[in-house]
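[Q] Does anyone have a clean structure-token version of this?
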Amino acid sequence: MKYLNKKSLSALGMATLALTMVLGLSACRSTPEEKAEFVSERISDKLELNETQQTLLKTLKDKALLAGKSMKDNKQEMKSNLVALISQPSIDHDQITLFMDSAMATMHTSVDDVIPSFIAFHASLSDEQRTQVVDFIESHKKHHHD
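[A] Here you go.
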């Protein structure tokens, strides 16, 4: 728990915002690219981003879309591997651990490509903008029964 300070919570909030940008708005009937564009435009408007920040946000959006596509493309392979594992007459601890480690490694690889863009965008925000993001996340957290 000693690693959870205000700075890391802010980074976590920004990560949540970035993932929301890619995965959010799933109820809309549009492509992931259209959803991400809508969310990034909204972020830009709400935070009143300057040109440099908008460029960094666009890079983050593009990297997050690629990571999302990569994870989606890998989903079918993971399902096939899980079905093959469950179809066996017996499963041992090592097989399940190997399956989970492989799935987690794939996810980490996809997310690792997004992290530098996220860090750059986060670093470009003013204290006021970061506060706006945290306030937004906190206000929406109240609507969801966490």
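[Q] Thanks! Anything notable?
[A] The chain has a mean pLDDT of 81.
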